[in-house]
Design a protein that fits this description.
- The structure is a single chain.
- By secondary structure, this protein is α/β, with parallel strands linked by helices.
- The strands form 2 sheets. Strands 4, 5, 6, 7, 8, 9 and 10 form a 7-stranded parallel β-sheet that branches. Strands 1-2-3 form a 3-stranded antiparallel β-sheet, with helices on one face.
- The longest helix has 48 residues.
- It is elongated, with a radius of gyration of 40 Å.
Length: 619
């Protein structure tokens, strides 16, 4: 399983994750890119070894693997809320999904002012190079008439290719992608100036408003204590630029390719023509684009060649644009089916997730889980007895030695099961379960009596720790099951039904393992009474400290007494005082707080070792 796990990770890293599209390499680290916004996601790491596979692919230092502690889908997360609502300009294309998944209707609200943006038909070229050359020509034309241009790309790679084209033509421009994320606010503030050229990756998800003429607020913010005259001048200059851009046709949107979703294309177009402003948008495509490469057949390509199209010529027709939108609808339908299928699988896990988190919240809120542990102990004991003494079986089928060994292993308790059975012919499974449970409960209560109320917090922490660990492993197992369950279809079985059946079995095992692990850990807890040993240790330390204090006191007294007297008299007086104090110390009787422990006697700490090799060991 481990080898297959690494093989899957390596294949995904090399074939499904592209550099400068799904991730970038920054400061010798893999940094993921949000596919919806084009922004970097600092601190985010892929799980299940996929991030390590990307690090190996790029020749970077491989960091430790992360493991999923909790997971859910967006759909089930949103459905936790009692009330759901939203507002966006592109919900209409996804109305069916909103209705089927969330039960929400989509209502289209008319715009405040008429939308006058011109949306031109798509231009389709045979090759990628022809498309980029046409985009470059269009950018130059738009810039020459004084209108700002926003070029939308789907990847960092495409944005850098276009940037190279513009640099060769010495056209000033700004690039906004994951590599220059920190400059986003500055770039957007100037993107609406006359003749400004901005290349942005996944502009649709950024939710930005490009103000025609630029943002005058940004200019004022750059000044220290601006005067009213300066503010009015900045506003006046902005108004002139604003009028100039409107006369030039507003913001022009140039799309370098169609996305799989019409919603993203519509959001890119929606950057222009806002609040009744003029605007213009057009998409440039090629037969080498991913969307057309997948959905356009060889017959379409051959038809375009038979038209006698020369280099640089493009097809522009409403029918072609509608055909592309039809292809997008196919992709949207496929993606919806994928999301719906994922949701159906996650609904199974969601039921389990609800149970686990409800139990976890109850544990967190409770100060005393002793009753829960008593029920767990009874369940574990019953299951253990059933494993060695099957229900409705005869004594010849009973494995009492195995049961005694299992009780010793699982609970750390010695119980003579065979002796009980020999002494009582009427003892059967139920009576045996009851007796074993009572003894185990009594042994554990004895430990609780010694420790006191502190044991309650310990029980709670142990139960939570084991629950979290088992749930984490369960999520990994469920993920592996989901990835390979489709293979059951080759055997004529329904993968979803098989997934539900096996997921239920795995969850049942999880709950059983939780009870067994909690009871096993708590049963093996050793309570050590260290009061006597601590007293002995403290007594020894006090004796050492007292001896050091006496020695220092004697030395200081001998040196400091009668320092003005010199000779034999002073030395004699100091010696007499030191001797007197030493005698007083010797006269002070030593009172033991505990009985004296012989060196060969057991140590009071309860370790089972002799005192001379435990707390009485000579240093």
């Amino acid at each position: 399983l481990s080898l297959l796990h690494h093989i899957h990770g390596g294949l995904k890293a090399h074939h499904l994750f592209n550099r400068d599209v799904e991730y970038i390499v920054q400061n010798k680290r893999i940094v993921l890119i949000d596919e919806h916004t084009g922004r970097t996601m600092e601190g985010r790491r892929l799980s299940e070894g996929l991030h390590q596979a990307l690090e190996a692919k790029e020749g970077l230092e491989i960091q430790s693997e992360s493991q999923t502690l909790a997971s859910t889908t967006f759909q089930n997360y949103f459905r936790l809320y009692g009330k759901l609502a939203g507002m966006t300009g592109t919900a209409d294309t996804e109305a069916f999904e909103f209705k089927s998944i969330y039960g929400l209707d989509v209502v289209v609200i008319p715009t405040n002012v008429p939308m006058i943006r011109e949306d031109a038909n798509d231009l389709i070229y045979l090759s990628m190079d022809e498309k980029f050359e046409a985009i470059l020509e269009d950018i130059i034309k738009i810039q020459n008439k004084g209108a700002p241009v926003l070029v939308g790309t789907a990847s960092i790679d495409t944005s850098e290719i276009l940037s190279n084209y513009l640099t060769k033509q010495k056209i000033k421009h700004e690039v906004l992608n994951a590599k220059f994320h920190e400059k986003e606010a500055e770039i957007i503030a100037q993107a609406g100036r006359p003749g400004a050229v901005t290349i942005a990756t996944n502009m649709a998800g950024r939710g930005t408003d490009i103000v025609l003429g630029g943002k005058w607020e940004t200019e004022i913010a750059e000044l220290d204590n601006p005067k009213e005259a300066e503010i009015q001048k900045i506003k006046g200059d902005w108004q002139q630029r604003h009028n100039q851009v409107i006369e030039a046709g507003g913001l022009h949107i140039v799309g370098t390719e169609r996305h799989e979703s019409r919603r993203i294309d519509n959001q890119l177009r929606g950057r222009a023509g806002r609040q009744g402003d003029p605007g213009y948008s057009r998409f440039y495509l090629s037969m080498e684009d991913n969307l057309l490469r997948i959905f356009a057949t060889e017959g379409v390509k051959n038809f375009m060649k038979r038209l006698g199209m020369e280099r640089g010529e493009a097809i522009e027709h409403g029918m072609v644009t509608r055909s592309i939108e039809k292809a997008q609808r196919k992709v949207e339908g496929r993606n919806f089916d994928i999301r719906k299928q994922l949701l159906e699988y996650d609904n199974v896990a969601n039921d389990q997730r609800t149970i686990i988190y409800r139990q976890r919240n109850e544990l967190m809120a409770s100060d005393d889980i002793s009753e829960l542990l008593t029920d767990m102990r009874r369940e574990v004991t019953d299951q253990l007895v059933d494993d060695f003494i099957p229900p409705q079986s005869v004594p010849e089928q009973w494995d009492t030695p195995g049961l005694e060994q299992a009780i010793q292993t699982e609970f750390g308790s010695n119980q003579p099961v065979q002796e009980w059975l020999d002494q009582d012919d009427q003892m059967y499974e139920e009576q045996l379960k009851e007796k074993i449970t009572d003894i185990l409960t009594r042994e554990y209560e004895d430990k609780c009596t010694v420790v006191g109320d502190k044991i309650r917090l310990f029980e709670k922490q142990i139960t939570l720790q084991i629950l979290d660990g088992l749930w984490k492993d369960h999520l990994a197992t469920m993920d592996h099951l989901r990835q390979g369950i489709f293979l059951r279809s080759y055997g004529g079985k329904n993968p979803r039904q098989e997934y539900k059946r096996e997921a239920f079995a795995l969850f049942t095992d999880l709950m059983i393992n939780l009870q067994q692990e909690v009871i096993k850990v708590l049963s093996h807890v050793q309570v050590r009474q260290e009061d006597a040993a601590d007293t002995i240790e403290r007594q020894r330390e006090q004796e050492k400290a007292r001896a050091r204090v006496n020695y220092q006191h004697q030395a200081v007294s001998a040196l400091s007494s009668n320092t003005e007297e010199v000779g034999q008299k002073g030395r004699k007086a100091g010696q007499e005082r030191a001797s007197q104090e030493a005698a007083e110390q010797r006269q002070t009787p030593f009172v033991r707080e505990v009985p004296k422990v012989g060196r060969n006697e057991p140590c009071p700490c309860g370790s089972g070792k002799k005192y001379k090799i435990c707390h009485g060991k000579l240093e």
